[in-house]
Amino acid sequence: MTDLLAVDGLGVRSATGRVLVSGLSFSMRAGDRLGLVGESGSGKTLTALAIAGLLPAGMTASGSVVLDVPSLPRTEVVGAAERRLNRLRGRGVTVVFQEPLAALDPLMPVGRQVAGPLRRRSGLRGAALRRAVLRALAEVRLADPERIAGAYPHEISGGQRQRVAIATALACEPALLIADEPTSSLDVTVQAEVLALLGDLVGARGTALLFIGHDLGVVTGVADRLLVMKDGAAVESGTARAVTCEPSHPYTRELVAGARRLDDALGGMLR
Ligand SMILES: Nc1ncnc2c1ncn2[C@@H]1O[C@H](COP(=O)(O)OP(=O)(O)OP(=O)(O)O)[C@@H](O)[C@H]1O
After folding, report:
1. What is the pLDDT of residues 117-145, one digit of tens each?
2. What GO CC annotations are associated with the protein (predicted)?
3. pTM score over 0.80
4. How far is the CA of 46 from the centre of ligand 1 (A)?
């Protein structure tokens, strides 16, 4: 099987030339679940944006990010023209961000927002499209999809919004879904539900998942492999089990000890 995503020596610099990410290399195949974990400011989000070709204006990427998605031309994202990247986004790679309010249009009922990618992907129109929207909302386990479809983003809860954002992202049938702290703004119970849902949905579709988070307990709940980042570089990588059971880098040991302390304080809930 060939790599779906091959990141080789990725670097990101700010407009003023500050090195924010450097020398990052990893690869993913169809259906893989990789967790990028590290403290705030370690470069996780910029890595995600660089992979999707969405770095803010002025920032520059170096190295190589190759996305090789079935039925799409193999694309070198670094330096690619916007037109090329547009073909890749959606079917190739889709991102779910931490704050769904930022991703959803405040002035459009959420049903119409899910309908956009569904229509583009499937060509459905009219009543058939409407049924597909309701199915997509039911699939992310939203009770009463009819009501949710007609609601504006501010009329539903944070957990419901994140489910809508996931439904919208999956409606594109992406080969790679990047989820950047998708549950950090949610309370713990809702967070656990949304994580389980995300795991089930990508599993059922064979979608590769790049899951980003600062909380090792959360990330290991979804990812099979981990890449630990610190100060814009990878300090350790391996299977989730190896990294959490036998961390070799002092920073990873700190992360593991922190997650254990939290787990003990919660009476082993995370085990
Ligand atoms: N638009 C920007 N201009 C300049 N520097 C930036 C910009 N965005 C991020 N940075 C810097 O790049 C570094 C990496 O940021 P990034 O957002 O990737 O970290 P992160 O690991 O995702 O953190 P968090 O968990 O807080 O989102 C940080 O030092 C940050 O201050």
Report:
1. 889 888 899 999 999 999 999 999 899 99
2. plasma membrane
3. yes
4. 6
